[in-house]
Amino acid sequence: MSGIPPILLVGCGRMGGALLAGWRERGLAPSVAVDPAPEAARLAGPDLQVVAEPAAIPAGFTPAAVVLAIKPQAAAATVPAYGGFAGAAVVLSIMAGRTIGGLRTLLGPAHGAPVDGAAEAVIVRAMPNTPAAIRQGVTVACPGPGVTPAQRALCERLLGAIGVVAWVDDEALLDPVTAVSGSGPAYVFLLAELLERAALEQGIPADLARLLARQTVAGSGALLAASPEDAAALRRAVTSPAGTTERALQVLMAPDAWPAALSHAVDAATRRSRELAG
Questions:
Q1: DSSP-assigned letters across all residues of the chain
Q2: How much is the pTM?
Q3: Are 93 and 40 found together in one domain?
Q4: How many domains in the chain?
Q5: Looking at residue 110, what is its pLDDT?
């Protein structure tokens, strides 16, 4: 199915903006975004009204989905204002760490639910990453209780506009997913940064050092994406016996070097994702 139905986008930062750009490419029905930042107003157009606060959302606007694209630290102060939309719309959260249960509590009983709150907001929690800006992201999503096949399909369309989408049923997996793919682009950018620094230390001119580092990382990623071989096989193909690459890898692959450091880094990020749920 082509086209994106009306959406209420909460937050127009990097990821919210990337989602919006992807939806527009697929044909976005008239929608609303909420963001108090003055620069958010530039995103307005015939398909999008940008308002600074929830109270300014046009009366009668009925979105198919409410997309929460704000910082997790802002959830407690921001999310409750959107509880009135939770009955008619699926809530899609891309906030790191914030659990489905925690968001249901912040949103309160779904609109029109019994007084005892038996019916609650229907939420899909997802973790995209920054290559979404060029539609090359990867997102892992988890459906909460009560998500219908149609709502899941809608969230698939919304997230598919920025790259590849995978689904898990175990919400606990989203914490290590956040550590691996959500934070992962920063690890890759750090590699380019350190390669450039090492090139400078070896006397390579600055412009050439930057070109070599950036294009090596970008080209290797493109090769990995295009190849049916796994990463280890591609690494071995570059590594001639007793050559320069083998000598370098003896340093990088020492037990206390990259293998340990990356494992510790992902573990630290996973623990931080769990802390953000608080």
A1: --SB--EEEE--SHHHHHHHHHHHHH-BPSEEEE--SGGGGGG-BTTEEEESSGGGSPTT---SEEEE-S-GGGHHHHGGGGGGGTTTSEEEE--SS--HHHHHHHH-BPTT--TT--SB--EEEEE--GGGGGT-EEEEEEE-TT--HHHHHHHHHHHHTTEEEEE-S-GGGHHHHIIIIISHHHHHHHHHHHHHHHHHHTT--HHHHHHHHHHHHHHHHHHHHH-SS-HHHHHHHH--TTSHHHHHHHHHTSTTSHHHHHHHHHHHHHHHHHHTT-
A2: 0.90
A3: yes
A4: 2
A5: 54
